[in-house]
Amino acid sequence: MITEFPIPTPGSAGPTEIVADSNCVMCGFAITAGPLDSLWFTIPAANLVGRITMTGVVSTLPVTTAPPVSMPVGTNVTIGAITAGDDGNLWITQHNDGKITRLTTAGVATAFALPSATSQPVAITPGPDGSLFIAEFTGNALVKFVVPGVKSTPVITQFTIPTAGAMPTSVAMGADGSAWFTSVVNPTPAPTTLQVGRLGTGVGPIVTVKVSGTAKVGSALTCSYVNNYGGPPANARYQWLRSGKAIANQTAKKFTPRAGDVGAKVSCRAAVTYSGALNQLAATSKPVQIKR
């Protein structure tokens, strides 16, 4: 069942067709799970961040933006992508002035400039150790942004994508510890192509899973994971697998093989959800072969 909730109108109906966040005056453009048991979304050209509770109550917070002096007079700076950070704040991209903004749940906004004001940051995701990874559409790059403390400054590292003309459009962390991204490659005069890329972060696998115990009928096996994310896990969910397929109703941390499992290869998958950013990463253990 689909239930819809109206967004308060900020004063303009906007265009009828949304083709970019700059067109999105009164629409909800991007959304993320976040703090206060709520979902948070952007209303880009209105420079508002909306909050909707699990009961459907909608409220908004303004995000003040200031165009750089290099932009034409009257140019509207718009917000776009949004994610929750491990620091408990919302983080938002400002694609046409090369900044990202930290927004507290109380509505305090702080902007941070990226290396290039014309790089068009269009996507953002939390990474290991409290960092953020940002896709720069016209910058042909990914940025690692180490979230600053109250009085410290951020550490910003830019990674150029090797393919000339690559324009990254989205980014997400993988359980292998890499930042994975999609990009449109538009070299001239060659035709446009699409690709997926991976940026190694040096962290290694964020989640590793193993099965312990004696792999025999009637002897309980235990599924456990190691967390290398740096942030605290909120919870973990388990799924036991037989020959790579889910075993019905076996979602506890322990599993006891039965006679019908003899000869089968059993493994466990752990999906770990992290507090703060509320992102989930999963990994599967090496299989063990069940004996009598």
Automatic annotation (TrEMBL):
Matching InterPro entries, A to Z? Vgb, WD40/YVTN_repeat-like_dom_sf
Q: Which Pfam families match?
A: Vgb_lyase
> Under which name does UniProt file this protein?
Unannotated protein
**What species is this protein from?**
freshwater metagenome
Its lineage opens with: unclassified sequences, metagenomes, ecological metagenomes
